[in-house]
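seq as requested:
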Amino acid sequence: MSVKPDRLSLRTKVALVFVAIGVAIPLAVGAALTAAAQRIAVDGEIGSALVLFGGLACIALLGLLAGLWIEVDEHVAKPILALARDAQTVLHAKAEHRLKADAAPHLGPLGPTMHELTSALVAARGAIDERIEAAVRDQEAQRLRLEAILRDLVEGVIICTLDHKLLLYNHQALTALHAAGSVGLGRSLFEAVIRAPFATTLERLMNRLAAGRHLEHPDRLMAPIVFATVDGQTILEGKLSLVLDGAGATASGYVVTFSEATRRLAALSRADRIVRDGVEGLRRPVANLRAAIDVAADQPADAAARHATDTEARARFLAIAASEVETLSERLQQFDEAYRATVAASWPTSDVRSDSLLSCLTRRFRESPEGPRCDLAGEPHWLNCDATSIIELMDDLTRRVAAETGAKAFSVRAEPSGGRIALDIVWRGDPVASHRLDQWLSERLAASIGGMTGREVLEHHKSAAWSDRLPGGDRASSEPESRIRMPLPAPVAPHTTSLDGAPPIRLEFYDFDLLKRPGDTGDLMHRRLRDLSYVVFDTETTGLEPSKGDEIVSLAGVRIVNSRVLTGETFTALVDPGRRIPPRATMVHRITDAMVQGKPPLSAVLRRFREFVGDSVLVAHNAAFDLRFIELKEAQTGIRLDRPVLDTVLLSALVHDHTDQHTLDAVAERFAVEIPPDARHTALGDSLVTAGVFVRLLDLLEAGGIATLGDALSASERLVAIRRSQARY
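struct tokens:
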């Protein structure tokens, strides 16, 4: 827009101010001197007259200066500050906020010029956004196709950083894991699943990558994995693959594809037990029948059976019965062996190098100083096994031997044995009695492998375990060496051929910004605001006085990760307040008594909300109000929201100190955050609006030198202290 000419320019106005001051000073001084001279002529008192009229002149000059300052402050200083704050909002928060052309009418062309500049900036941004949108349209289409593929996949898919923070998950993964724990972007995977299988599998793959063995390994950087949810109710199986960085030299994360195996593995175990019990149940009758035939064959013939024909018939009967019993016994043995082989073949296993497998075990003992020492010995060999369950079994047996024998040092190794690869646990001392080892193998192991017994783990590998003296031990030592030996299957595929000429590994997938974020290390207060995860929350209540019995009727929250509002990761719940909702409150939030009837109490909702919050920073608009309702219930519910809290009211006052309008509607309007009409005054709707405001505030806070969580909390506390001081006057 064009700037309309003013009758008086800004420079003219400033000049007139100084002319007025220049004229007023001599007039005031002259008037005072004239009055003083007249007073002296009448009274003859020079001193008193000069003091009196000199003081009056000073008072007049001070009054003139005060009046001029008020005018300058009202028409110059305040409009300039308002223009600066509005310009910062447009510049840093990237809001579609335009300055009014008449925002500073006494500053000449400054107001209209700033209006034109900000309008031009907004227009330029719009043009740039259009070009960017056109440039990334193909990428967006690919992203949508990826989402469609992930949505339609039968298997669950998760992608994590190396510190196990979720970067991506699909609907199937959410369905499989969410019932057991909290699932959300930026949150730890181990809030939903047990850690041990992932730690073991990742360590194996990282060792494979570091040694360069992935170039020759048929599975490259992938390994099967069986794991359980934290509640132990669901067993899942799938494959874990490392994700390499752009150079392909180091790992930056991992991908897991999986499906539920609880029913299949449980059915397999039940079928195994049924057949095992059936076979064992038949062995005894067959043995008894064979014994009876043997006894009958040894009995002397009675008088009635002494004829040759009867003797021959009896002999033929016994021969036929003995032959059939022998055949039945052999068939039962074959059936038992075939079925056990089928069960073992159905269990998920893979080829593993023994040093990669056993180093996972030795690291466990290094990380638990109170336990025995366990070292790796011998040459590496390839074998085929379920690495997770074998490690759990060896860990359990080693600790039991230490407790039983008092041994403090162990070694583990692998060596070929009769076409298989035997894993040995070796210590100085006597072997473990066979009945004691059988007892240990009949007890259940960790929940991370579904609570299987050690014997079931061995049977899945068509193996057994025994304890004996170590052949050819150290004869110079007075104390012999003993071992527990477990022969495991040899590798399925040969591992001696090189894959020279094979194409390099390149994992094709998208750029996830969360991979670039630093880990959760160091003091939380010193971490950048942009690097933190947040939960923005809000409540709806029966009234405004929690100390007088008002209660929460609705609680909601939304997660912010990597400066993005995750509208798909929300928490919302109605709460039974245990009292009637006043009509005036219903008029505001539209929640009625009928809507909360039968809903859970606040204690149950708060427990779920605390799990949803996790280690995130809390954000709310006028947070003290919402927190007061929750704090008053701490003793009753036993739940504390012991997380740092940021208040968008205070943060808005920090960056927009030129105005006292900091209601949610006013702040949202300044930042051009849309408020859907039907969402206002609902806990989830207000949480989403507050989240949109907070994301825009981050830019302005950083521009104002408030970059860390500690900076934001300290600045908020200073502002609260200032307001309390002002309230005293």
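The first strand starts at residue 156 and ends at 161.
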